Amino acid sequence: MPVYKRILLKLSGESLMGDKQYGIDERRLDEYARQIAEIVQMGVQVGIVVGGGNIFRGLSGAAKGFDRVQGDQMGMLATIINGLALNSALLNKNIKSCVLTAVGMEPIGEAYSKQKAVERLLKGETVILSGGTGNPYFTTDTGASLRAIEIEADVLLKGTRVDGIYTADPEKDNNAAKFDEITYDEIYRRNLKVMDLTATTMCKENNMPIYVFDMDTAGNLKKVIDGEKIGTLVKK
Fold first, then answer.
1. In a domain, 31, yes or no
2. Domain that holds residue 226
3. In total, how many domains does the chain have?
4. Which of these, 90, 188, 102, 86, lies nearest to 140 by C-alpha position?
5. Integer Cα distance of 4 and 6 in angstroms
6. 187-226: per-residue pLDDT in tens?
7. How far apart, in whole angstroms, are the C-alpha atoms of residue 160 and residue 214?
8. What's the whole-model pTM score?
9. Of 19, 20, 62, 188, which sits 20 to 30 A from 54 (CA to CA)?
10. For residue 166, is it within any domain?
11. Residue segments in the chain with a per-residue pLDDT below the cut of 50
12. With left for phi above 0 and alpha for psi between -120 and 50, is residue 124 left, alpha or beta?
C-alpha cells in the first residue's frame, strides 16, 4: 500500500533538459510521465509543480539587464510551457490530468484555486500547478511549498538529480555524507541549499515534511511511495 495518499511533486525545469543544453528532452519527459503514471495507477493523488529554468529564469535574467518583475513573469510563463508538456505526456499515457495556472491563461490552462485543485485530485486527476505563486520575487520552490500546504498534501516530494541531502555538494566533495533524516533547523544551521529559505520556512511553520530523492533514476518515485528509504526526509 502507498505510504502517502496525496503528494505534491516538485520537479526542476533544468531536469527536463536531460542531456540537452536548453528546452525539453522528450525522453526525460516521457520517463517522468511514466513514473508519475505508475503511482497514479496505485491510487495516489498527485499534484505537480515544475520549474522553468530550462527555458528562462527570472533572477538570471535580471542579472543580464531584464526588469526583475518582468523577468520573473517570463519565468512564470516558462513553468506553464513545461506544465503543458508534462500534461501532454501524461495524457499520452492515458492519465487524466489538467493544468491550473496561478495567472489567468484561459484557454491554455484554468485559473488555480484550492477548491478546484482538490476537487480534481479527488476525482483521480493529476493536477499540474503552473505559474509559480503568480507573484514576482518568489521561486517555484516556494510555489511548491505553498501549493503542498494548500492542497493538504501528505508530503512535498522534491525530485532532483541527487539522491538526498548531504553535508556538502556530493558532486564537488567526495567526503560529503548523506542524511537519512534532518530537521528544518539543522538545514538552517548548516546553511544547506535544499530549497530557498522562504520555502523551507513555510514547510516548517505548517509541518509539511519534505522528501528529497533522485527522480532521474527510473522507478525511484514508486520506491518513495512504497516507503523505501532512498532519499532524505526533512521534518521537525
1. yes
2. 6-235
3. 1
4. 102
5. 6
6. 999 999 899 999 999 999 999 999 999 999 999 999 999 9
7. 5
8. 0.95
9. 188
10. yes
11. none
12. left
